[in-house]
UniProtKB/TrEMBL annotation:
PANTHER family reported for this sequence: ABC-TRANSPORTER METAL-BINDING PROTEIN, HIGH-AFFINITY ZINC UPTAKE SYSTEM MEMBRANE PROTEIN ZNUB
Bilayer topology annotation: Multi-pass membrane protein
Pfam families: ABC-3
Keywords, ordered alphabetically: Cell inner membrane, Cell membrane, Ion transport, Membrane, Transmembrane, Transmembrane helix, Transport, Zinc, Zinc transport
Swiss-Prot/TrEMBL GO biological process terms: response to zinc ion; transmembrane transport; zinc ion transport
InterPro entries documented for this protein: ABC_BtuC-like (IPR037294), ABC_TroCD (IPR001626)
Coiled-coil annotated residue ranges, if any: none
GO CC terms in record: ATP-binding cassette (ABC) transporter complex
Regions that span the bilayer: 43-72, 84-107, 127-145, 157-180, 186-203, 215-234, 240-257
Role according to the record: Involved in the high-affinity zinc uptake transport system.
Gene for this chain: znuB
Entry keyword Ion transport: yes
Full protein name: High-affinity zinc uptake system membrane protein ZnuB
Length: 261
């Protein structure tokens, strides 16, 4: 297997593993639009990274984390509805990133790669960021799993039981921000949220417990990555969109599979 294809496969599999349990919470808590907002801000992180001449992955992580904190703060203190606020920030950050990049005449970047992913161009450094970031998120999810489930099932009851609901909610948003930042190289700014949502939505139909859904979402994500890379390799299609198309096909096939009683 060529080195670039092996790097792409390892990066995609690492992301799929962590996207399963995290995507389950995105589906349960109906946070898809929140994920879109963070993914749109990733392009602003790219622009800031180029401007400050720092590692782009690190710049994107910092930008996504700061936006997650800003969202939590604004949701608690402003009178606007959450979806309105998310819409404003999503399109504003994406547009600001594009405008900022247009001023950098001496910088040549593959804008389509950032928007739609460039998985086959994953370098060993990119792979280290993706694997390291995914591992950190998985390790953080282990102690947070039960508290997150409690807050997701009944937030008011979780408050009564003494759980720090606001801190747990913020922790979930920061983990989503981390995954979105490292996933940008794989599926691109415009498709990141789909890799979190589609496998989890497909697994939801056939899972009896939250753990089964999280595991099923990870396995379906792994399958989507393998199928998408195979499609890209043999048919010369863009890797990121091919993975999303494969995930969508798996979601549609999940309706043909008999649902467990």
């Amino acid at each position: 297997m060529p080195d670039f294809l092996l790097n792409a496969l390892l990066a995609g599999l690492a992301l799929a593993l962590v996207a399963g349990p995290l995507g389950s919470f995105v589906v349960w808590r109906r946070m898809a639009y929140f994920g879109d907002t963070l993914s749109h801000s990733a392009l602003l992180g790219v622009a800031l990274g180029l401007m400050l001449e720092v590692n782009l992955t690190l710049a994107v992580i910092v930008c996504c984390v700061l936006l997650a904190v800003l969202l939590v703060t604004l949701q608690q203190r402003q009178p606007l509805a959450s979806d309105t606020l998310l819409g404003i920030l999503a399109h504003s950050t994406l547009s600001l990133g594009l405008v900022s990049l247009s001023f950098m005449q001496d910088v040549r970047i593959d804008l389509m790669g950032y928007l739609f992913g460039d998985l086959l161009a994953v370098s060993p450094t990119d792979l280290a960021w993706i694997v390291g970031g995914s591992a950190l998120v998985l390790l953080a999810l282990i102690p947070l799993w039960r508290p997150l489930l409690a807050v997701t099932v009944h937030e008011e009851l979780a408050k009564v039981e003494g759980l720090p609901v606001a801190a747990i909610r913020l922790a979930l948003m920061l983990l989503i921000a981390m995954v979105i930042a490292v996933a940008m190289k794989i599926v691109g700014v415009l498709l990141i949220t789909s890799l979190l949502i589609i496998p989890a939505a497909a697994a939801q139909r056939h899972a009896r417990t939250p753990e089964q859904m999280a595991l099923g979402a990870s396995l379906l994500g792994l399958l989507a990555v393998c199928c998408g890379l195979a499609l890209s390799w043999y048919q010369d299609t863009p890797a990121g969109p091919s993975i999303v198309v494969s995930a969508a096909a798996i979601f549609l096939l999940s309706f043909a599979w008999p649902r467990r009683a």
